[in-house]
């Protein structure tokens, strides 16, 4: 028996039509081909399946023993896809109820799908491999259409045209830099832009940025206070950095010499911690507000502002102690106060949440008894 085996390595059939594979038999294979052609007429695997049907019909008219099947892989990579094809070939061979020796004629649409041939050969002898090539793809009109389709794809435009455009701008920008006596700056800026773009594409930062922008847009139109809180917190962080730098410069000028690393760190923290604490309070209160509006607020969320205050008190006291502006007694009191504040807030909201849960449980029980 000859098995006409149509190979779809990246599982376009399953992903685009929902067909369960492998597909075995002429009528199911024809149904799958029509479904794929309807879902995506430009998919080359449509031609592979119809070619398999054509060969099947031709051999069946000659009264030869023949069967047709479609096997697919997946879109997770060559190794995983090849294993999936091998498993489906095993399923197809197990379903053939024949005492004859089975050989295969493999139908593919290109070299990528043909990479699975060794996997198939390990399971069944292969009489031949037929690569399906659409005739129109060989003429100039089809080439123009293909290029047009590629350039119309937004992802392709971003991947190919933007780097090519930046490279083509290097020469005119170099001429402008030579006129302005700034060739290094112009070339460096161009190279930096190209490098940042390639890194962002390689790391997939474009999708992350698009997701962040979409989330920010939804938050803005939904009236969420978190977005505004984050903007304010970012400004407070910048002010905190500036304040920390000013504090460090003041300590350095007063000491008149080099500072040790712990003292430098303490100066930065001492000057910036109150700004950072304000930023933390802003973001936590904004998040609590949104959770309350959404009806999903839990008592333990209220711990966040108190934790921020506790950490700020401790860091402020420690940094002040290293700078020599406070005594040991103040440090001990501040550490104790920060710790007690965090513990009290945790216990308070935990007890409140437990009591509320018990009350809701009792109300539910009473309501059930009344019913």
Please provide a written account of the structure.
This is DUF373 family protein. By secondary structure, the protein is of the alpha/beta class. It has helices at residues 12-17, 26-39, 44-61, 78-95, 111-114, 117-121, 140-152, 154-179, 183-203, 205-222, 225-255, 261-294, 303-323, 328-370; strands at residues 2-8, 23-24, 66-72, 103-108, 126-131. The chain has three domains: 2-133, Rossmann fold (3-Layer(aba) Sandwich); 151-203; 223-362, no CATH class. Helix content is 73%, strand content 8%. A five-stranded mixed β-sheet has the order 2-3-1-4-5, with helices on both faces.
Order of helices and strands: EHEHHEHEHHEHHHHHHHH
Query: Roughly how many Å apart are the termini?
Result: 70 Å
Strand content: 5-15%
Structural class: alpha/beta
Segments where pLDDT lies below 50 for 5+ residues?
none
Total beta strands? 5
Q: What's the story with the biggest beta sheet?
A: 5 strands, mixed
Q: What is the approximate shape? A: elongated
Helix content: over 70%
Please give the oligomerization state of what you see.
Answer: single chain
State the domain count.
Answer: 3
Radius of gyration: 34 Å
Number of helices: 14
Mean pLDDT: 81
Strand order of the largest sheet: 2-3-1-4-5
